[in-house]
Amino acid sequence: MTKMLTLVAGxxxxxxxxxxxxxxxTMMITFRxxxxxxxxxxxxxxxxxxxxxxxxxxxxxxxxxxxxxDKDGTYYVDIFTWRDASIPDNAPPEIKKIWDDMHRLTxxxxxxxxxxxxxxxxxxxxx
Length: 127
Prior knowledge:
With 127 residues, the chain is of the alpha+beta class. The protein has a domain at 37-114: 2-Layer Sandwich (Alpha-Beta Plaits). It is built from three helices and four strands; from the N terminus they run H-E-H-E-E-H-E.
């Protein structure tokens, strides 16, 4: 047991093990797709969710993806909860690749950024 603790402590000090706070973080992300990229962006958002679930990075609920239109065009809102607030800063390469696609498919418009991030709190499930 002592040898195992020594090994884990050594790996942690060497940066090979990341300790997390187990502090969930619910996010609301707004995406402004480039004209003509709406369908592809919707697929990328869905792929992000599927990948994050497969990698066990997010809680299964709440999760919702919404589509809306304003005077500047279509936009999407995705709401989900990271299992731990440290995950976005330590995201695996599969997730970072999807984020690159999200940036490629979005643009700032109408005074709004291409992607807007807000940490939110669930007030009611409406039950």
